[in-house]
Request: fold
Amino acid sequence: MSLPPEILKKVRLLEISTRKLVNSLFVGSYHSAFKGQGMTFSEFREYVPGDDVRTISWPLTARTGKVYIKKFDEERELTLMLLVDVSGSLDFGTGAEFKGEVTTHLSALLGFAAAKNNDHVGLLLFSDQVEHFVPPKKGRGHVNRILRDLYYQRPLHRTTKIAPAVQYIQGVLKKRSIVFVFSDFQDEGFAESLRMIAKKHDVIAVIVDDTAERTLPDMGLVDLRDAETGEVMTVDTGSKSFREAFEREVKARAVKRESELRKAGVDRILVSTNEDFVAPLAAYFRRRGTGGKR
Reply:
């Protein structure tokens, strides 16, 4: 497939901009935050004071007359799956980036950190259906392919439905994996699907929002268009009671979203287009790597 030069340029610029962060910040914290799938036998070596006596190989010790222990290494290889919401509501933002651009930047950071650790990385784009799927593979070149698809693939649908994407991934992932779900979570009824997949996989919800979605400025009569349904509504932002009602409704949705995610038993990271959106991800990695509260 021949891609437009502007897409290739965007991918290259994004790789350059994330490389320093990946090398200086995310590789170590990524490795600490996400442990391997178990321990594999590496070799025998002679016992030294301080070694765990439970690792002593008694048969080898009996044969040689010297005390030997079994050395184990962490089975490091992991699979990282990026589930990225590409519905209409992600085409919004009042900061330097739209919400969809924030998810692309964070996907790049995670993808290159995983590649640096020799882990597999996969991608699933979703709206109210699965829009595009890239099976997990290794390597920086594969991560670049994922970034090209993030920039190039245009969704067929505009509304959000998280459950079908989660159910699809649950069907294709055979080994325990790390699953990041990037969305503004403008959806309902997704808790059960997340709860089911979290039984086997390590699931992290990355909630992307914008301050303009929480408060309305006084601008008089304005037309607001729903990015997902296309419905246009004229509202009076000059009305204090309307603005207050709007904020109450937004807070109620946020409380319900938090309740759904807690019910699902998944980790949560909140990022905003109006702030440093890398910092919450880095802070999450640090907390997780030290065993702190997530």
User: Anything to note?
Assistant: Residues 61 and 114 are 40 Å apart (CA to CA). Strands lie at 39-46, 68-74, 79-85, 120-126, 130-137, 178-183, 202-209, 221-225, 232-236, 267-272. The helical segments are 5-33, 58-64, 99-116, 140-152, 162-172, 191-198, 240-264, 278-289. The chain has a mean pLDDT of 88.
